[in-house]
Amino acid sequence: MERLEVHTLICKRDIKLFIATIKLFAHHSKLEFDTVIHEDGSFDDSDCAYLNEHIPNVYIIRREDAEIAVRGFLKDHELCTHFRFAEHHTIFRMKLFDQFYFTRSNNLIQLDADILFSKAPQALINHIANREGAYLRDTWSAYCVPFRDEDNDTLVDRFINAGLNYYPTKAHYSLDHVEKCLEILYNHGSKGATHPFLEQNCIAYMTTQLRKEGISFFQLPHPDYCVPTFHEFRAEHGLTALHLNSSPIVGQWRKEHYEYELQKANIDWKI
Q: More exposed terminus of the chain, fewer Cβ within 10 Å: N or C?
């Protein structure tokens, strides 16, 4: 099997959080992998040195280099090019393209910096062994017009989150489907909009269309892998992976959850 890669887009602020995330993932999964960091333009040389010191087999893609390389990758997809390089769209747009250009193996996990692993992710490990695509279930379908739940849309499968996704082969990614999704979104007013869910909507649309074509994509078991809504710090929750995003409902006790899991795993690290 081609070597597994873990790709993450991070900013300077989240460096320590990501190191904690990758340490816990490596500890619980026991997988061998390369770590590929896509930085958002906020890094300096000392940040790169720090990451190289604390993460083995790490590759850091500087944004200034990515801007040049990815433009060529998207040259035949007009709307993808607009979405990737239009400054008003959120930085999350990079997740939709850069990892698929810079991968060496086409066997990759897209992992947000705030995915907390609390025990062995056996379901994910099984999907990796079987070369099956996988994704995290969201708490709601965080999509844009016309794909929202209230729009009664049927073109996109519900509840697909873009925080933890596994793409085992080149066939599990399609620029053509992303281009089509952007066409639909832009025709409904998103071309000039700043919206945090455009990239997630494209991932959901692409996943849905590829699944219709017979490409394997499975939802990771829920709520074992989830965006939690505990409304409290719950140390012994018994779950495998939590997406502790910046939502006040979810992320308010992120530090406590991380410190508890790091201590439990005997990993000496502070976020």
A: N
Candidates 3.90.550.10, 1.20.1640.10, 3.40.50.300, 1.10.10.10; CATH matching 4-264:
3.90.550.10
Alpha-carbon radius of gyration of the chain: 18
pLDDT digits (tens, 9 = 90+) for 208-262: 999 999 999 999 999 999 999 888 899 999 999 999 987 777 778 999 999 999 9
Q: Report, as an integer, the average pLDDT of 149-164.
A: 95
> Can you tell me the distance from the alpha carbon of 246 to that of 108, in angstroms, rounded to the nearest whole number?
24
- Indicate the pTM of the whole model: 0.96
pLDDT digit string (tens) for 92-117?
999 999 999 999 999 999 999 999 99
For residue 203, what are the CA distances in angstroms to 53, 139, 167, 251?
33, 16, 11, 23
Residue with structure tokens 């997809």?
A: 77
